[in-house]
Amino acid sequence: MDHSDAISATPSKLSPIEQAKRLAAYTAVDEHIRPNHKVIGIGSGSTVPYVVERIVQQGEELNKNRVFIPTGFQSKELIVSSNLSLGDVDQFPTIDVTIDGADEVDRDLNCIKGGGACHLREKVLAEAAETFILVADYRKNAEYLGTNFPGIPIEVVPFAYAKVLQNLHHALGSPNATLRMAKAKAGPVVSDNGNFIIDAPFPPETMKDPYKVMTRIKMLTGVVEVGLFCHMAQAAYFGNQDGSVTIK
Ligand code: 5RP
After folding, report:
1. Any residues with CB less than 8 A from the CB of 75 and at least 6 apart, and which?
2. Which of 17, 56, 142, 191 is the most buried (most CB within 10 A)?
3. What is the DSSP letter of 203?
4. How far apart are the CA of 118 and the centre of ligand 1, in A?
5. Burial level of 152, CB count in 10 A (0-12/13-18/19+)?
6. pLDDT value, residue 7
7. In what order do the strands lie in the sheet with 235-239?
């Protein structure tokens, strides 16, 4: 399939990184969103607008029979402003395909998500999907998790955040785990679900077994969801600077 319009359209307006994101997004949509797909999950972050852009290019005729499920406030706005039909996962618990961004993806397609604090809903939509696809620029492609994106995002109920921080510092081996603060230290970041976010870095050796890290954190009372997605994605598309796409 020809994805050259992803690199040729308005090249001067997009930075090389944005072009790489768009290339990944366009390629993934072309490969995975089929005419028979009626329920589509839309993830969060700065790569996902290109996913929606490409879906809109598939035409009104196809899209009028589809419903789009957002992972958060940003993707909800994106769906509505693109004149696509909005649904929710409680009405559509089975999704044909979900396409989402990632903060880092390892060689086994495990990934870190939650840089935008949306990983609880993102994981629900990933699990609800028959096919879950990741899109990103080349900077997110790593051998092991924690290489370029050290902190694992953890959503916690506000009431329990100090206790969970203590657990991470003293029992789980993440002494530098911190509560994520809003810009200008205006207070903690609050997720779409009204919860706080902790970012917890772990040593590289520990990150070689992300499933074990994820399950240990999930066991802590007060943790709502961990931004480690293990064995969930079927494929990841990375746009490169030279206009090629790496597919894992
Ligand atoms: C939000 C996420 C995003 O998908 C992730 O941060 C990637 O974003 P971007 O495409 O801007 O790099 O997990 O919670």
Report:
1. 42, 43, 44, 48
2. 191
3. -
4. 8
5. buried
6. 53
7. 67-70, 39-42, 95-100, 129-137, 235-239, 245-247
- Say if ligand 1 is within 6 A of residue 118 CB: yes
ipTM metric: 0.98
Give the Cβ contact number of residue 212 at 10 Å. Answer: 13
List the catalytic residue out of 104, 122, 155, 225: 122
Which atom of ligand 1 is nearest to 114's Cα?
14
Ligand 1 mutation pick, 18, 75, 118, max ligand atoms within 8 A of CB: 118
Task: Tell whether pTM > 0.90.
Answer: yes
Please give the angle made by the CA atoms of 123, 124 and 125, to the nearest 5 degrees: 90
Supply the Cα-derived Rg of the chain in whole angstroms.
18
* Centroid of chain to Cα 12: 27
Is 61 labeled as catalytic in the residue annotation? Answer: no
The finding on whether 117 has its CB within 6 A of some atom of ligand 1 is yes
Separation of 163 CA from ligand 1 center, angstroms? 27
Tell me how far apart the alpha carbons of residues 199 and 213 are, in angstroms, rounded to a whole number.
13
113 within ligand 1 shell (Cβ under 6 A) = yes
Residue 241 Cα, ligand 1 centroid: separation in angstroms?
19
- Give residue 217 CA to ligand 1 midpoint distance, Å: 21
At a CB cut-off of 8 Å and minimum separation 6, what does 134 contact?
99, 100, 101, 102, 105, 109, 111, 233, 235, 236, 237
